[in-house]
């Protein structure tokens, strides 16, 4: 269950970064509120995950999945480059996260 | 000054991670929330003068490493060699992705990955 919390927390991070991008395009109060809400949601679930997963593991997986998700979203929706190097690094993160879960 | 901002952000990041885990009363929670906001602030300041991908790579890589070390020293975190290996793999991947985010690409105006 803690690992599910951790994945949910990473989505908070991903949507948080996406909402920062939305806000930078058009600075409205509503979009600022969206940033606060998405990140708060992420931090709340990170807190829950940390109750069952060691700090060092939880933080690394959270930040890793957050970065991986942001890149996948960037490639899919914001036309960021998807060259082989970025895909290789993406796999490093995913292998690391999955590996930590498996050997837990 | 840009790198000083990165350093402050990384130190404060470690503080809020500990706060998030161990806060129990209103005072500690207030401190944690202030630390989160401050770390955002310093990252944004650093990104004004340095490439955002580089800033995030250094900041999050060092933050994750320091948190593992603190976990091992102060909180009896027992990490096996495989766990350390997988954590290193994640840090390596994050740093790589963030650094490649700085590479210019003509059809790219908005960089999501460089965000926080």
Automatic annotation (TrEMBL), chain A:
GO function terms (MF aspect):
transmembrane transporter activity
User: Keyword set for this entry?
Assistant: Cell membrane, Membrane, Transmembrane, Transmembrane helix, Transport
GO terms for CC? plasma membrane
> Topology versus the membrane, per the UniProt entry?
Multi-pass membrane protein
TM spans (from-to): 6-24, 31-50, 56-78, 87-103
Which species? Cerasibacillus terrae
Q: Which family does it belong to?
A: Belongs to the drug/metabolite transporter (DMT) superfamily. Small multidrug resistance (SMR) (TC 2.A.7.1) family.
Keyword Metal-binding tagged: no
Lineage of origin: Bacteria, Bacillati, Bacillota, Bacilli, Bacillales
Query: What is the recorded name of this protein?
Result: Multidrug efflux SMR transporter
List where in the cell it is found.
Answer: Cell membrane
Automatic annotation (TrEMBL), chain B:
List residues traversing the bilayer. 5-23, 29-47, 54-75, 81-99
Q: How does it sit in the membrane?
A: Multi-pass membrane protein
Q: Where in the cell is it found?
A: Cell membrane
Source domain of life is Bacteria
- Molecular function GO terms recorded: transmembrane transporter activity
Query: Can you cite an annotated GO cellular component?
Result: plasma membrane
Pfam family for this entry, one: Multi_Drug_Res
Keyword Ubl conjugation tagged:
no
Keywords attached to this Swiss-Prot or TrEMBL record, sorted alphabetically, are: Cell membrane, Membrane, Transmembrane, Transmembrane helix
Major subcellular location class: membrane
Annotated family = Belongs to the drug/metabolite transporter (DMT) superfamily. Small multidrug resistance (SMR) (TC 2.A.7.1) family.
Name of this protein = Multidrug efflux SMR transporter
Lineage, opening ranks: Bacteria, Bacillati, Bacillota, Bacilli, Bacillales
């Amino acid at each position: 269950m803690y690992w599910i919390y951790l994945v949910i927390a990473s989505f908070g991070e991903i949507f948080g970064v996406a909402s920062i991008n939305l806000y930078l395009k058009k600075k409205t109060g509503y979009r600022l509120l969206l940033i606060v809400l998405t990140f708060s949601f992420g931090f709340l679930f990170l807190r829950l995950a940390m109750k069952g997963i060691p700090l060092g593991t939880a933080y690394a997986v959270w930040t890793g999945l957050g970065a991986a998700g942001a890149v996948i979203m960037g490639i899919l929706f914001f036309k960021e480059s998807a060259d082989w190097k970025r895909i290789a690094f993406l796999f490093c993160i995913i292998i690391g996260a999955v590996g930590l879960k498996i050997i837990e | 000054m840009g790198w000083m901002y990165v350093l402050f952000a990384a130190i404060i990041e470690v503080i809020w991670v500990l706060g998030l885990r161990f806060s129990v009363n209103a005072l500690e929670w207030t401190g944690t929330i202030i630390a989160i906001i401050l770390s955002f602030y310093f990252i944004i300041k650093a990104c004004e003068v340095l490439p955002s991908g580089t800033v995030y790579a250094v900041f999050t890589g060092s933050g994750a490493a320091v948190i593992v070390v603190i976990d091992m020293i102060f909180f009896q975190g027992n990490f096996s060699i495989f766990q350390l290996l997988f954590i290193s793999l994640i840090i390596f991947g994050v740093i790589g992705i963030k650094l490649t985010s700085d590479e210019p690409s003509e059809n790219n105006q908005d960089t999501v990955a460089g965000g926080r």
